[in-house]
Design goal:
The chain has helices at about 15-30, 60-70, 75-85, 125-140, 165-180, 180-190, and strands at about 1-10, 35-45, 50-55, 90-100, 110-120, 145-150, 155-165, 195-205. It is an alpha+beta fold. It has two domains: about 1-95, Alpha-Beta Plaits, CATH 3.30.70; about 95-205, 2-Layer Sandwich (Alpha-Beta Plaits), CATH 3.30.70.100. The two termini are about 20 Å apart. The protein has an eight-stranded antiparallel β-barrel, surrounded by four helices. A hairpin with a 6-residue loop joins strand 2 (about 35-45) and strand 3.
Length: about 210
């Protein structure tokens, strides 16, 4: 299984127009016939006016085949892509391999946090090993949704996705975890492996399977 994380930056003031077309036109045309949509969100912090969507494919060969079929779909290219293209300022794409199975949260509404950590060259696997070992401790406070390592895009990068009831819940959970001695020990040995950390708060888009 592989995942594709696509981030589109929209012109200021055009995000709602894009979301309307995506929900009413794009999703109806594409569905999950050309890859399964795992989740889609809009950015609440960091770079604003962004649409972030996570796609699931059996493997890279099948992704290439399905995207090739999608490109031949004139309803998609003429009826949808041609309408959204004027709204787009930039596109970014990352191919991710899962380090843990994707675990969407239970029913209910959530806010999400996408954290991306860039490790020293060649040391992302080492950081991941520490992180997976500490997961039982961290998940005493909240459950992880997804953990990935980049295969294409920014290399030596790990992405992890978390869900919270709201931003107050996030603050409470992270505050409690930071007081845990085992978590503190993990940070002490893992933080020196990192060169960059980013965090984006995400709100589920209208068509997102994850709410």
């Amino acid at each position: 299984m592989i995942y594709e994380l696509r981030t589109y930056t929209l012109q200021p003031g055009k995000l709602n127009d894009y979301l309307k077309l995506n929900s009413e036109v794009g999703r109806k045309i594409r569905g999950d016939r050309y890859g399964r949509l795992a989740g889609s969100w809009t950015s609440e912090t960091g770079v604003l006016n962004q649409y972030v969507h996570l796609w699931e494919y059996p493997d890279l060969v099948e992704r290439e085949r399905l995207r090739g079929e999608l490109a031949k779909n004139e309803e998609w290219t003429r009826g949808y892509v041609s309408q959204i293209r004027p709204f787009l300022l930039a596109q970014e794409n990352k191919i991710l391999s899962p380090a843990l199975p994707l675990k969407p949260p239970a029913e209910g509404s959530h806010v999400y946090e996408l954290r991306t950590y860039r490790a020293q060259v060649g040391r992302a696997g080492e950081w991941l090993g520490h992180y997976k070992a500490i997961m039982p401790t961290r998940e005493k406070y909240s459950k992880i949704v997804g953990l990935f390592q980049t295969e294409a895009g920014q290399l030596n990068e790990v992405a992890h996705l978390w869900a919270y009831r709201d931003l107050n819940d996030r603050a409470s959970v992270r505050g409690a975890a930071m007081k845990d001695p085992e978590w503190q020990a993990f940070i002490a040995k893992s933080a020196p492996l990192l060169v960059e950390m980013k965090s984006t708060i995400l709100i589920p888009a209208p068509s997102s399977p994850m709410r």
